[in-house]
Amino acid sequence: MTSGRLVLALGGCLLAGSAGFFVTSAGKPQSNDQVAMRPFTAQIIEKHFGPDGKLTSLMGAVNYITIARKSDGSYVRFLPIQGPDGSYEVLRDIFDASGKQISIHPHMKSITTYFISPIHAGHELARETCPPEAGNPTAERSQQLDYEVVRLREDTQTKLGVETDDRWVAPALGCFTMEETYITESGSRNEDTVVSIMEGEPAESWFTLPSGYTEMSPSEVASAFAARFPGHKFVPDEAAKWMDKGYYAHRTPQQ
To answer: Which of 50, 68, 71, 240 would bridge with 202, disulfide CB 3.0–4.6 Å?
Structure first.
């Protein structure tokens, strides 16, 4: 599990995955009846740098993210953001291991729910377990916040150059990423660092949906955002349409 590469700088504010937090396909499918995981709550600082090596001038160049995982693999991610009017809210994304992914946006008082199949839930749960290379006896190892961490680095050749994902993961926590540097082909990079971690089941209220919020599709969220913040877009129009396809394909419980 990684912390923050779903964060998008859009419309003058930061959106944590926005309406695009839905079905993942990475990782090896597995049963939902897996061994219980070690639950924890982690505080993460995320920084975005431009090709010049300096922090970007965009709002949200530095983010303070909280991720909390339950023993069944369900997790919630919190991201405080500032809207175009200067108001602060906390975005919340929930992965429910029983078969749902939910985005909660306080600025629009909206809930966007995707129902996912057991296979897709297994894909997401697989992201919370260690890949084989983490057990390589020759892998580089260190210590961070009293956890042994293993270095996993992947260089990907693209048409524009090389992307680098350099992570230090904690095997004791299902290879949760404790530190990550992601470098794009242009030289821009994101840095995520876990600054504190506390083991134990997170509060159940963090996984409870707020009252008074309305279920909305991605395009409805975009319209509500534009109505509240004239002149600003939640996501580009084409992106909202693309997200709607995923949303309406996952509106009922999946088998």
So the answer is: 68
Q: What is the pLDDT of residue 139?
A: 93
What gap in Å lies between CA 168 and CA 174, rounded to an integer? 12
Return d(Cα 25, Cα 160) in angstroms, integer.
Answer: 24
Longest dimension (CA), the chain: 56
Burial letters 123-142, b for 16+ CB under 10 A, else e: bbbbbbbbeeebeeeeeeee
Give 193's contacts (C-beta < 8 A, 6+ positions apart): 44, 45, 178, 179
DSSP state of 56: P
CB atoms within 10 A of CB 186: 11
Q: Which pLDDT value is given to residue 230?
A: 92
Q: What are the residues facing 204 on neighbouring strands?
A: none
d(CA 107, CA 90): 9
CA pair distance 89, 98, nearest whole angstrom: 27
Q: What is the pLDDT of residue 126?
A: 81
Please list the ranges in the chain whose pLDDT falls under 50: 4-34
The confidence score (pLDDT) of residue 13 equals 35
Contacts of 247 (CB under 8 A, 6+ apart): 19, 22, 112, 114, 217, 218
The pLDDT, as a whole number, for residue 82 is: 81
Note the pLDDT of residue 49: 94
Predicted local confidence at residue 29, as pLDDT? 35
The count of C-alpha atoms lying within 13 angstroms of the C-alpha of 157, restricted to the half-sphere facing its C-beta, is 0
